[in-house]
Amino acid sequence: MSDIIQLLPDAIANQIAAGEVVQRPASALKELLENAVDAGATQVQVVVKESGKQLIQVIDNGKGMSATDARMSFERHATSKIRSSADLFSIRTFGFRGEALASIAAVAQVELKTRQAESELGTLIQIEGSEVKKQEPFAGNIGTSVSMKNLFFNVPARRNFLKSNPVEMRHIVDEFQRVALSYSEIGFTLFQQDLEVYSLTPGKLSHRIVGIFGKNYQGQLVPCEELTPHVNVKGYIGKPENAKKTRGEQFFFVNNRFIKSSYLNHAVSSAFEGLLQPDQHPFYVLFLEIDPSHIDINVHPTKTEIKFDDERTIYAVIRSAVKQALGAHHVVPSLDFSLDVNFNEKWDKDPEKKAQVDREYSYKSFNTPEFKQASTSGWEKLFEGTQQGTRNINRATPSDETEVLTFESRANPDEATEFIPRPTETESTGATFQVELSYVVAQMSAGFLIIDQQTAHERILYERYLRQLKLAQGTSQQCLFPPTINLGPSDFALVMDIMPELHSLGFMVSEFGKDTVLIQGVPADIQVKNEKELFEGLLEQYKHFKSELSLDTRENLARSLARKSSLKKGQKMNSQEMETLVGQLFACQTPNYGMGGNKTFVKLDLSSIHSFFGK
Ligand code: ADP
Ligand code: MG
Q1: Is residue 58 domain-shared with residue 184, that is, in the same domain?
Q2: Best of 21, 29, 35 for a ligand 1 pocket test (most atoms within 8 Å of beta carbon)
Q3: Rounded to a whole number, what is the largest CA-CA distance in the chain?
Q4: Could you tell me which residue ranges the MutL C-terminal dimerisation domain spans (predicted)?
Q5: Contact yes or no for 250/267 (Cβ under 8 A)
Q6: Is residue 50 located within the same domain as residue 198?
C-alpha cells in the first residue's frame, strides 16, 4: 500500500491554528493591540465596523517594519520577540508566539501598511486566506496599520457562529479596556462605525480609570501598594460604599498582561470581608510585577491564565495590600455604622431584634380567609403568581387524624415522588417561627421542617421567573420617576442583547441615548425601593453567573433576578409570610434544593427527636 500521510498545506495549517488564536473579532483586536504596544506606540487608534465582523483596524505610531519583516510577519511562528527557548522565561512583551498575524491572515482579508522612521517609503501588503495578493511600496505615516476585513470570509461555519453585534461589541470593548488600562501612558481611541466610543489621553492610571469607567469613579479610588522582594502590587481599589455602582469591574495585570484568576480574586474579596454585602463586588485594578522567571504565561493559548510558582505568597501579599489600603484610608471605620456587616453584632446593638427566636403560635392555614385578604398587599406581593401552584400541595383533611405524614402525591397515588412534606393544618399543633431571622421552622404532625428562608425563596422566585420567561408573561409596575442609567459601552451592549428577556420579565427598558437606558417599569411582583439599584444589581449578578457558570440567557436571568429580589437572611417575617413561603416552596417543581444545589430545608422527624434522648 502506498504512503498516505502528507503535510498539510500552510494555508490549511494556518487556518487550523487560527482556531486557537482568533475565536471572534475581539480576540483579533487583542492581538493587534498588543502588537501595537509591543512596537512601542504612544498613540493607538482602533476603528471597528459591524462589531468587528466587517472591519477591525488598528493604527499605531510604533516602530514599524522593514519590507522583509512585513512579509515575514505573516509566517507562522515568525516573531521578533524571542530567539531561544530561554527567552520564554524572561518574556516582557505581549506577543511571543508569532502566530497572531499568520492566523488572522488565514481567516480574513488583511491589509498591512507599515513604515519605519528611517525609511522614506513603507510597505503595503494585502493578504487573504494566507495568500499574498499584493505587496508594494507605499508612502504614509510612520508606524503600522493593520486592517482585518470580513473575518471568517472563507470559513462560513465559523462566521455563522459569531454572536449578535451587541455581544461581539461587548467583547471588543472588554479587550480594549484591558489593554487601555494596562498602558495608561499610551493614548487610545476607539471608533465604532463613525462614532467615537473612547478617546483616552495618555496619563496616570487614576486618570485612565476615570476615562474608561466614568466620572463617578473620581474620589472613589483608593491607592493600593505593597512592595516585597518577590512581588510588587500597585493599583487602585474602589471604596466599599461604591461597590454596587462599580458592577464588579475587576482587573489583574501581571507584568502588564491582563489575567483572570479566581484564586487571586478571592484574595481581594477576603480583604474586603465584612465591608460588602454578599452580592457586592469590589472594584479593583491591580498590577503585579514579578520576575518573569517565576511565572508561566504559556498555560493557555489566549493567555489570560497564568501559573505562578508561589501562588500562596502572592495571595498573601495581595490580601495584605488591599487590607492596608482599606485601613490606611480610613475606609473601614467610616463603614461600621452604615452596613450590616454582621447580623449578630447588629442584633446586640438593637434590643428589638435581640430575640433570636421569633415565636408565632397562631398558625393559620394557607387558604383561610385571613390569608386571602392579606395576600394582596405589601410583602405578600413577593409571592403573587405562584398561588396556582399551592393546589398541588397535599393537605391533610380534618378526618385524616390517623395519617401522620404522606410521602406520596394524593393526586397520583401510584407515582413515587421524593419526600415532599406538608405542614399540618391543625391549629393546635401548628407553629411557625424564625430562628436567627434566617430559618423558618414549621411544625408538621411528625416533627419539624427547618427551612433556609433565603435559599427557599430564591427557589420559588427562580421557578417563577423561568416560567415568565418561557411564556413572556411578566407584568410591570410603572416607575414613578423613571431613572436613566448610564451603563458604559460594555454593559449597554449586554442590555441590548438581553432586551427581549428583560421585557418578558416585566422590565420596561428602552435605549436612551449613548450607552444609556431608561427604566420605565420593573416586574410587578418585586417591591423596589430603588429601581436603579435593582437593575444594576441584576446586571451585576447576571455577569457574575455568566462568567462563573456560563448559563444560557434565560436561566441566568431567572437566577439573577431571583438572587437579587429574594428575601434575605436577617429579614423578619410574620406568620402568614412564613406559611406562604412554606406553601410555595412545596409547590415548586424541585422544592428540595436551592438554585445553587444547597438544601432548602431539613426535616427533623419524630424518630430523630426520639433518638436524641436514646429512645
Ligand atoms: P508575536 O507578536 O507573537 O511576535 P505576531 O504574529 O503578532 O506575533 O507578529 C509577528 C511579528 O510582526 C512581531 O514579532 C513583530 O516583529 C511584527 N509586528 C506585528 N505587528 C506589528 C506592529 N504593529 N508594529 C511593528 N511590528 C509588528
Ligand atoms: Mg503579537
Answers
A1: yes
A2: 35
A3: 101
A4: 431-573
A5: no
A6: yes
